């Protein structure tokens, strides 16, 4: 069986040329913990000024970093030995507001903020979170206050959303329909009045389906946002190109589970197609056995012998646990091997399964130490 290449995470985060690390993968595989532990180690071991940006609305990261809460602005993490670490959690509504404020006058911004369509879109529109994650990354890069930015990508059904959704939203905001709405509003003849005069039946149908008020809100929003047309797409493209820069490194995070590995293979191939700098795979929650010479079958055979002799002691319980663990390790090894077979040139690092969830800085340090010391990658 082919053994995977070993991912040296210390060499990655300690390299001054590495300015952005993006942790991506399917939901529930430990991206947030991986991002936080790498950011902490970069600060403490290599003295780098580091900021970690999480998209996960859960409070786990704030609690583990010893912070009461996280918001849209970087907050300094205390008790960091050497270096510095800031942490923040994306607020997509506030980030969208910041984008509008940066590219319109205050009067125009107030008009946009008051628009019901904007209020709905900026908080719930599909792709907004992923787009604003890239906007926030661009803002952090522009400030040039940190040596390293570690990004925890949005939790979603598909890890590809982080790459695809920003472009979809940019196309919508810069799209032909929005331009039509804008030009009709500027010309003094609303597209809606034209529809009413010539296609009254169609207009009534549209009004019933989505509401005339919504149509009006969209038109007003498009007109108010006219000064930023082209800007959304331009910034999305600029950030996309920045992600292709050699100073950026992508880490695909997975767990030894069929769905997670399948998603990791898919995303790895997509990153390669998009010419994104892929550093490797982090395989979280891996199990191992200490007594490698004792197979599951031999352990259960010993249990049966003890039971037959009437000596069902705690030793039998230990053997049962060992047998189950050996079987689990074998299953995980087969599953992980699917990634190695599909992506043989991608280095891997393994993090063992911990007995409890990560709760504080010490736990994060333990995860980072395990990552750095994973010289024995899964086969």
Automatic annotation (TrEMBL):
This is Anion-transporting ArsA/GET3 family ATPase. GO terms for molecular function: ATP binding; ATP hydrolysis activity. It comes from Stackebrandtia albiflava. The lineage of its organism: Bacteria, Bacillati, Actinomycetota, Actinomycetes, Glycomycetales. Residues 18-285 form the ArsA/GET3 Anion-transporting ATPase-like domain. InterPro entries: ArsA/GET3_ATPase-like, ATPase_ArsA/GET3, P-loop_NTPase.
């Amino acid at each position: 069986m082919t053994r995977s290449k070993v991912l040296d995470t210390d060499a990655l985060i300690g390299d001054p040329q590495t300015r952005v690390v993006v942790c991506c993968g399917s939901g529930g595989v430990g991206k947030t913990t991986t991002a936080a532990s790498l950011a902490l180690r970069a600060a403490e071991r290599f003295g780098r000024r580091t900021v970690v940006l999480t998209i996960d609305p859960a409070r786990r990261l704030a609690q583990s970093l010893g912070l009461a809460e996280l918001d849209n602005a970087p907050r300094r993490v205390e008790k960091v030995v050497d270096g510095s670490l800031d942490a923040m959690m994306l607020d997509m509504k506030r980030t969208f507001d910041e984008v509008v404020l940066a590219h319109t006058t205050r009067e125009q911004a107030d008009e946009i903020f008051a628009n019901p369509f904007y209020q709905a879109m900026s908080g719930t529109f599909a792709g907004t979170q992923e787009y604003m994650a890239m906007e926030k990354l661009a803002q952090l890069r522009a400030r040039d206050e940190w040596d390293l930015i570690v990004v925890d990508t949005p939790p979603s059904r598909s890890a590809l959303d982080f790459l695809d959704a920003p472009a979809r939203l940019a196309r919508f905001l810069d799209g032909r329909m929005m331009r039509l709405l804008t030009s009709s509003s500027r010309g003094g003849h609303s597209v809606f009045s034209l529809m009413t005069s010539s296609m009254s039946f169609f207009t009534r149908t549209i009004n019933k389906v989505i509401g005339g008020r919504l149509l009006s809100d969209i038109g007003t929003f498009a007109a108010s946002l006219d000064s930023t047309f082209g800007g959304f797409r331009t910034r999305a493209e600029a950030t996309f190109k920045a992600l292709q820069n050699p100073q950026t490194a992508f880490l695909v995070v997975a767990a030894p589970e069929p769905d997670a590995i399948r998603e990791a293979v898919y995303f790895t191939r997509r990153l390669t197609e998009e010419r994104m700098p892929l550093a490797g795979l982090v395989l979280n929650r891996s199990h191992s056995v200490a007594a490698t010479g004792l197979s599951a079958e031999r352990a259960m055979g010993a249990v049966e012998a003890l039971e037959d002799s009437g000596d069902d002691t705690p030793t039998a319980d230990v053997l049962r646990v060992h047998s189950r663990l050996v079987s689990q390790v074998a299953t995980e090894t087969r599953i992980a091997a699917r990634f190695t077979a599909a992506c043989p040139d991608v280095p891997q690092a393994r993090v063992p399964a911990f007995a409890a969830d990560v709760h504080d800085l010490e736990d994060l340090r333990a995860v980072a130490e395990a990552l750095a010391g994973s010289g024995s990658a899964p086969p």
